[in-house]
Amino acid sequence: MRRRQNGFSMIEMLVVITIILVLVTGSISILGIFMRGQGLKQAGRIVGTQFMHARQKASSEKCIYFLQLDTARHVMRLYRDVDPDGPAGPKTFDRTLLTTGPDADLQDGDEHPLPNHIEFACSQAWASGIAGKSLTSKAPFDVAGSTFWIGFYPDGSCVLPTTEVGWDPDALKTADLMLIQEGQSGRVYIDINPASGKVRKQAFRVD
To answer: Could you read off the pLDDT of 133-158 as tens digits, one per residue?
Structure first.
């Protein structure tokens, strides 16, 4: 009686290797779908958290706070109005963020980093092209300047860089604030309520 030799044949080895390659390839594809837009979604969560933080600080301390978004350095900064009377006299508030000069507002805390290559747009209609005020200097935006700010007031309200627009991320692709990331086809749309200074809703869409 002949004894069976131990080990695998070449054909069996090739079959096992082929199965492993198919499983690995499928896993990578699924992981890519899952990870798509994670940087943008994370940025949306950071923005929402900082909105809430700035609103609470302004309300509790009875002063104006400014949330500055810097797309050049991919950070957000919070400033406190330390000169509430402002140039207009007593019982008035500064309406503009000042980062230099004798009436400069004070940066409150450290910078809050955002995922790399995140850019912002405000009150833009993507379906009809990039027009009007743009808030970053990188493509596809062509207006100089890479920072802008949002003001939060003691009564809970906030002031956006431009007027509030309709929430329609699906058809018109409009929102009060939009986040894009270089190399990504998706966008995060953020709807803001200026009367309460709150983020009402967010949506991630892939074109």
So the answer is: 333 333 333 333 457 788 898 888 88
pLDDT in tens, 92-131: 556 677 788 777 889 998 898 888 777 777 654 333 333 3
Q: What CA–CA distance (Å, rounded) separates 54 from 37?
A: 26
Provide the CATH number for the domain around residue 54. Answer: 3.55.40.10
In-domain check, residue 185: yes
- pTM, two decimals, is 0.70
State the total domains in the chain: 1
| CA–CA gap between residue 206 and residue 187 (Å, rounded) | 6
CA distance 19 to 100: 63
81-117 b/e with 16+ CB inside 10 Å = b?
A: bebeebeeeeeeebeebbeeeeeebeebeeebebeee
